[in-house]
Structure formats: structure tokens, C-alpha cells
Design a protein that fits this description.
406 residues; alpha/beta; Aspartate Aminotransferase, domain 1; Aspartate Aminotransferase, domain 2; 2 domains; nine-stranded mixed beta sheet; 15 strands; globular
């Protein structure tokens, strides 16, 4: 029977999230999941956050009303101060936009910068939500391989030239997660950060810097983000979020970008959700105003660094020598395993039989028909999230994974 609906071309191109599609398969009794990139719910600051709800008694008539598209003023003041400290220069109010999750920031930027068929340069591998959002904007993808030092930015001039030769279009955007990338956990080297900022201006291709994990460093030296290195150059768009450092349920994030771009994004979001929940913004602002965020950061850094060490030890203990290789991450949420043989999809099926789950690497690459130039796939790779499970489950899950690897 034919559908009564005449779907748009966009709806016809939409694909399900490869990670969310796995969730039904892994919700089995006794399953240990390293699949979802989830924070530890036992570390959520439930009590202090609940206490902040008294902001409704004080300011309820304001926060229960429609809010400004740019964001709740008290939260904006906090974010402007936070960004001045992080960037080491003042951010102008017309450069800041509060969004409903950092993915909305990317979506708004894509909607105002891209036309169908435009090319975006992404890391290979990259976050599937980014692929999904950019695909919905009609983008095609040019991929840049990564190593332990992040995106191989030295390849960008060649990739841009090849994209122009093959499509007749210059790339419109470069997307990167410099700190503890999802899924690879890689941290871009300082030399490459400087080179990427210089190339963005030289090639006239803006960079979208997604920074959800930058504050979650467990070892090594803190590196400046791209926006700080750009020192006012409009080619770098910065985005960050409270999802990983507070709780994903708050859905509060922000972007810092050139005023012209920020204004265009504001106008675009007025046709979508009008504004981020003012109630939630008020709760987050009150939480930060009371100084809770600093205390909470100390807590989660202790918890997550312990879990990271636990997974490193468990993988060394339970995986047969030579069966897989990886680099221990200095921060973030993820280990990125490269298998010595076989495909991660086949391993996933065996692992689920052993009651342990992860995400096969192919989820983190655009489809073959979407990629310009060299095609990258993730058949030999697997992403393991270490933040959700407790340490005994991490050890047992890696034992099961070792059994599946054989």
C-alpha cells in the first residue's frame, strides 16, 4: 500500500542514527555496554541541581516566560566570563548564542552556510551526529585521516584542491573535535592546531570547533583551543556544552562566532525552536552562580580518570597480545581499538553473544557515495566508552570482549 504522505527529498535521504539503532539490540539482561557515549549517572549532581530550583520562587515570572533567542541574560553573563577565561580575550555579547545542545549549534551554522551539494571537510573518523546533521543540510563530505595527534591538517590544501577539481565547489566548512575526539579519543597536537588556524584563513574555509570534552583532561598538558589561537580571526566558530560536564539532560550549549554569523544563526533558530528552555537555562545559571560547577568538575575528573585507567588495564589484561591496538586517551570518553584482523561488525555480533557491546567503526564515517576523493571506512575499528560502566563492569566487559576476539 502506498503512503498517503508525499515526503520531501530530504526525508527520503534521511538515515537512522547507527548508534541509536544498536540500543534495542544491547538492552538485554546482563549486557555490559561500552556502546553509548554516556556520562556516569551516579556522578550527576542531583542534590545541588535540585536545590537550584528555588530560582523559580525568586524569578519564576521571568523564567517561565518566553526567552530571548540569544539566551537567558544571567546565563549569558556567566558564559561570557567563562569564555574570557578560556580564550584569554573578551567575547563580545553579539558573538555568543545559547543553543539547545551543541548539535543545534552545528545545525544552525550548517543551515546558514551550506546549500545542497556543498562539501564539508570532516575528520575520518568523526561523530555520527555531525554526519547526520550535515547530511540533512544536503552536504557531501571530504574526509581527512586522523592519527594519535588528531586530524592530519597538513593534507588540507591537497584535499581542498581535489574537491574543487572534482566538484567545481570550494569546501564550505571544516568540522573538528580537537580535544579527545569522538570516537578516536585523539587530541590534536599544538603544531597542528596552529597550522589549522593558519590554513582556515589561507584557504578561506571556516572551521567549526566542537569542544564538548576539552575540560575532561586526565593526563598531559592542557592545549589552547583553536578559537584562542585564532585571536579574533572570524574563520573559527567555537561550540561547547554542559552535556558532558554537568548532565546531557539539561540540553544547554553555546557557540561563539563572528557577529554576522551569529545573527544569521539567531534568525534561523527563530524559525525552529525560538529559544532554549529558559527554565533550564535559569537552573544552569543558578548552579554555576553558586559555585557548584567547579566542585563537580573535580568530582567527575576523579571518577572518569579512574575509569580510563581501569579500561586501559583491563584491555591489556584480557585482550590477547597482537589482537588489537590502541592509544590510551588523555581525556574524554573513548578508547578507539584497531583490530588486527576481521571486521568490527563481525566482532560486534560475537561480542553481543558474550553480553558485551561497543560501536563498530563504520558508524563514524560518511557513506561511500557521500565522500569526495579518497573513501575511508571503519571496518577494522571499534569505539569503547569507559565513562558509563563502573570499574568492575569495565573489567568484566573487557574480559568478554577478549573472549569474542579469540
Amino acid at each position: 500500500m502506498s503512503s498517503v504522505f508525499q515526503f520531501s527529498k530530504l526525508a527520503g535521504r534521511m538515515l537512522p542514527s547507527p548508534i541509536r539503532e544498536l540500543f534495542q539490540m544491547i538492552r538485554q539482561p546482563g549486557m555490559i555496554s561500552f556502546a553509548g557515549g554516556l556520562p556516569d549517572p551516579t556522578a550527576f549532581p542531583v542534590g545541588p541541581f535540585a536545590d537550584c530550583a528555588d530560582v523559580l520562587s525568586r524569578d519564576g515570572r521571568e523564567v517561565l516566560q518566553y526567552g530571548a533567542s540569544e539566551g537567558y541574560p544571567p546565563l549569558r553573563e556567566i558564559l561570557l566570563a567563562m569564555m574570557a577565561e578560556r580564550l584569554e580575550f573578551a567575547v563580545r555579547p553579539n558573538e555568543l548564542l545559547v543553543t539547545s545542545g551543541s548539535q543545534q549549534g552545528l545545525n544552525l551554522a550548517a543551515r546558514v552556510l551550506l546549500d545542497p551539494g556543498d562539501v564539508v571537510i570532516v575528520e575520518a573518523p568523526t561523530y555520527p551526529g555531525t554526519i547526520h546533521s550535515l547530511r540533512n543540510a544536503g552536504a557531501r563530505f571530504a574526509t581527512v585521516p586522523c592519527d594519535a595527534d588528531g586530524m592530519q591538517v597538513e593534507l588540507l590544501p591537497e584535499i581542498v584542491a581535489r574537491t574543487v577539481a572534482e566538484t567545481g565547489r570550494r569546501p564550505k566548512l571544516i568540522y573538528t573535535v580537537p580535544d579527545f575526539s569522538n570516537p578516536s579519543g585523539a587530541c590534536m597536537s599544538l603544531e597542528r592546531r596552529h597550522r589549522l588556524v593558519a590554513l582556515a584563513a589561507e584557504l578561506e574555509v571556516p572551521v567549526f570547533e566542537d569542544d564538548p570534552y576539552g575540560k575532561l583532561r586526565y593526563s598531559g598538558d592542557v592545549l589552547p583551543n583553536l578559537k584562542r589561537l585564532a585571536a579574533g580571526d572570524p574563520h573559527v566558530i567555537y561550540a561547547s556544552s554542559f552535556s558532558k560536564v554537568l548532565a546531557p539532560g539539561v540540553r544547554v550549549a553555546w557557540t561563539v562566532a563572528d557577529p554576522e554569523l551569529t545573527r544569521a544563526m539567531v534568525l534561523m533558530r527563530q524559525g525552529e525552536d525560538l529559544c532554549t528552555s529558559t527554565v533550564t537555562q535559569a537552573l544552569v545559571a543558578e548552579y554555576c552562580r553558586r559555585g557548584h560547577l567547579e566542585n563537580h568538575m573535580s568530582r567527575i575528573l576523579e571518577v572518569y580518570s579512574g575509569k580510563c585507567r581501569a579500561m586501559q588495564l583491563a584491555l591489556l589484561t584480557h585482550l590477547a597480545p597482537g589482537s588489537a591496538s590502541w592509544t590510551e586517551p588523555q581525556g574524554g570518553f573513548f578508547f578507539w581499538l584497531e583490530l588486527a584482523r576481521g571486521s568490527s561488525r563481525e566482532l560486534f555480533d560475537r561480542a553481543v553473544s558474550e553480553k558485551v557491546a561497543f560501536v563498530p567503526g563504520s558508524a563514524f564515517y560518511p557513506g561511500d557515495d557521500e565522500q569526495i576523493g579518497e573513501v575511508h571506512t571503519g571496518d577494522r575499528f571499534a569505539r569503547l566508552c569507559f565513562t558509563f560502566a563502573d570499574e568492575p563492569a569495565i573489567d568484566e566487559g573487557c574480559r568478554r570482549l577478549g573472549a569474542a576476539l579469540g
